[in-house]
Amino acid sequence: xxxxxxxxxxxxxxxxxxxxxxxxxxxxxxxxxxxxxxxxxxxxxxxxxxxxxxxxxxxxxxxxxxxxxxxxxxxxxxxxxxxxxxxxxxxxxxxxxxxxxxxxxxxxxxxxxxxxxxxxxxxxxxxxxxxxxxxxxxxxxxxxxxxxxxxxxxxxxxxxxxxxxxxxxxxxxxxxxxxxxxxxxxxxxxxxxxxxxxxxxxxxxxxxxxxxxxxxxxxxxxxxxxxxxxxxxxxxxxxxxxxxxxxxxxxxxxxxxxxxxxxxxxxxxxxxxxxxxxxxxxxxxxxxxxxxxxxxxxxxxxxxxxxxxxxxxxxxxxxxxxxxxxxxxxxxxxxxxxxxxxxxxxxxxxxxxxxxxxxxxxxxxxxxxxxxxxxxxxxxxxxxxxxxxxxxxxxxxxxxxxxxxxxxxxxxxxxxxxxxxxxxxxxxxxxxxxxxxxxxxxxxxxxxxxxxxxxxxxxxx
Amino acid sequence: xxxxxxxxxxxxxxxxxxxxxxxxxxxxxxxxxxxxxxxxxxxxxxxxxxxxxxxxxxxxxxxxxxxxxxxxxxxxxxxxxxxxxxxxxxxxxxxxxxxxxxxxxxxxxxxxxxxxxxxxxxxxxxxxxxxxxxxxxxxxxxxxxxxxxxxxxxxxxxxxxxxxxxxxxxxxxxxxxxxxxxxxxxxxxxxxxxxxxxxxxxxxxxxxxxxxxxxxxxxxxxxxxxxxxxxxxxxxxxxxxxxxxxxxxxxxxxxxxxxxxxxxxxxxxxxxxxxxxxxxxxxxxxxxxxxxxxxxxxxxxxxxxxxxxxxxxxxxxxxxxxxxxxxxxxxxxxxxxxxxxxxxxxxxxxxxxxxxxxxxxxxxxxxxxxxxxxxxxxxxxxxxxxxxxxxxxxxxxxxxxxxxxxxxxxxxxxxxxxxxxxxxxxxxxxxxxxxxxxxxxx
Lengths: 461, 442
Hints:
- The structure holds 2 protein chains of 2 kinds.
- Chain A is an all-alpha fold.
- Chain A has 3 domains: about 1-125, no CATH class; about 130-230, no CATH class; about 235-460, no CATH class.
- Helices cover about 75% and strands about 0% of the residues of chain A.
- In chain A, strands 1-2 form a two-stranded antiparallel ribbon.
- In chain A, helix 11 (about 225-235) packs parallel to helix 13.
- In chain B, strands 1-2 form a two-stranded antiparallel ribbon.
- Chain B folds into 2 domains: about 5-365, no CATH class; about 405-440.
- The longest helix of chain B is centred in the C-terminal third of the chain and has 32 residues, at about 410-440.
- By secondary structure, chain B is mainly α.
- The interface between A and B is large, with 60 and 55 residues.
């Protein structure tokens, strides 16, 4: 049977879109949450089927069969590069909603989360530069609305994302007009959107001030990295990639180092996120099959691990308010499950053996060492510093004299289900890493083949 | 002998601890922890089966043609088109088999001890989850047939050790010491990882059966010259961090914050010897560089001398024992540097057993002294300390203070490395906050 003929991709992006209308019709937030979970489960199933179609199908791609609200119907395509990203995004969305705290039901827009899921699917599925740029610019609306609702200052965030979106759009338009500067303008926009040094301040600020759940939906799948991998990597020259890799390695080390001195758990999480994203980018800029394959693997694993860690952090904040890392908080006795969950997802972030990130990080570090010699040590140092900081935060949060609380604050069933899902997926993915590594390597080889073809074309011209 | 049977028995030495870890960890994680009796039964059974397997292999292998066994385990990740493979491999030779048997005997002893010692402790299950992670790490490290397998075991041992140092985490001191131990381990692990990645560039060098080790104590390596020195130096730092060699000695007494069983097993007997084991395993590479060998001897002897002075003035039994342990570890490392492989191995095993016994008796030391004095019918004789006999009184105080402050090693590292590093980062963080506040007009 031709799997590509089945409309899984249509189901994946249409179900959250239609589900958003269904959810918005619900007056009771509990009903809205249930509808959102049902819809997102369908989307996750469909996204999983799309991935299977790409991996095992004859055509190795999946397209939309129905009408797509975009002038160019070929602008959306699921291939080996983006299929697992869409599935990971669906997974993160589903479990963020499952673990949504009851106290925040009335403030959280479930319909908005579904619309955002559609937008993220479309962003990852877009293979046309203009479509990706437009969708990335539109996706900014999600965090902006959250910050406005939380009455947080917007200036820094807007300054960066408006600049990034503008550059992405202008770069895409210039590229379509065959302007030689288009690629550079687009790349600069993507770098700002991905928070590489020195354009990283907005990301830390966003994690510090925004709603953590909404930020995880927007940031954990690393959408800006997609624009870089899909469009910047194939067209950049070797010397440009070398410079970009150095910037990425420096960002990874810088963010990991600053993670050691954070006094606020949210800011720490932001640093960890930036460091991991920079390591993913360092692997992408290596532009070798092993380096890029490792980076694509790390992308999936760190997205999932970061989402699991972020949700655990959110659960802790619900119980104890802001988590200040200045003294030991002694939360272990009251929330042992969250302690285990925090430790395991944290270790998965830093590539502890047995987790999916381990092999991925080894490939990224190996490629950095091979290509850049002594500068590759930066990658190893960044990973080591991240590992130190994750245990530091763990001990600060969970060790110390136990806190006495007048009410029961043990983990709830939905927290346990969500925690187990993330821990299970990073652990099982780590133990049975071969299919993921193989799939990511295939995707890497296709991207590099495209890069080689573009290089030949440029030489001819 | 059927080679398939040998391979199955050999693999079980890693598979059984893995199953033990998975069982205890999953049950604890889903909040359905087994009863103490059940924990005792599964731990004892696992260790018993492993000991039987070890005994079988120890008695069988000498009669096989090769005298050693190499098991190609599961492939974790493989990319044949790019000549990349990450696979588990186990090796049973004259180094790994005695070391593994020693680890099993000591782990078994400690397990039985801990079952009573931690009876009804709130952290009983947590201890045994970490214990099983440590056991698996030890099995992987001691039996590793390649550098990747060794590194996985090494990491497991490091994590479980750091978490056990902070076992009593209702107090803040163990947590602080746990993060200190973890930090030293991470520096050591980063060096180990770099060495492993560099070994990948030398075909077969990371494979102990073909490259860097050979069938111990024989062996050859494809790495020579300055490459050997560079990789060997990274391995020496890794070993120094793990074995608390000079100048990383500071974490060892801090590690004594953990419960007695973990102090005994990890820092007194097993974990502290892993650095020496690594050097023994990589001996063919190390001996390619005379300069490196000399450096190892210097590090070993410096550690031994420093620890001998520090051990004499420690005010608590566990710290005193830990420094005494370090004296012997330093000597073992010096022996490795001198090329005395077999002596170093025998020294290591003998010392591990002795030190475990001493650590386990440490909580009842006063009781033991009373028994001895009652048997003798008089007080135990007090000898004049060696330093009192050879040092001038004015020097005695200075040396005493220096030793009591453990050579101010931690303070020196903090002052010259840790504090400048952290204060620079703190300033950068503050600068970023000011920029953000300025842009946001807050």
